[in-house]
Amino acid sequence: MCRDLCLAGRKSERDMRTMLMVETESRTQNEEIIFLRLPQVKAATGLSKTSIYEKIKCNAFPLPIPIGKRAVGWIASEIKQWAANQVLAAREERRHIELRQLRRGPANSRIALRRTA
């Protein structure tokens, strides 16, 4: 599914993780950090456990943070930001589709009028 993203290259993955770490460090100084466990992340995103970890592998989802020997959590604000980005991307894609339909619209509407006449 996201194989292309995974094959993008290790250097860019490392750079993205470093940027995320720097961004997270600056954020932690300004706001309270709330950790979400996997069931809460699944409920917030509507994704399955497998989908979450596939997206993490492809750098398409926030990384979990170790919070114990055998426990990880996700920063709530990062999950919220990811969800907001998903909404924006979906709306942007919808706008592009509507624009394409508008550009082709008059020709298609003439064809539809000829068929009904």
UniProtKB/TrEMBL annotation:
InterPro entries: AlpA, Prophage_regulatory_activator
Signal sequence annotation: none
Gene3D superfamilies with a match to the protein in the record: 1.10.238.160
Pfam families from the UniProt entry: Phage_AlpA
Name of the protein described by the UniProt record: AlpA family phage regulatory protein
Species of origin: Granulicella cerasi
Species classification: Bacteria, Pseudomonadati, Acidobacteriota, Terriglobia, Terriglobales
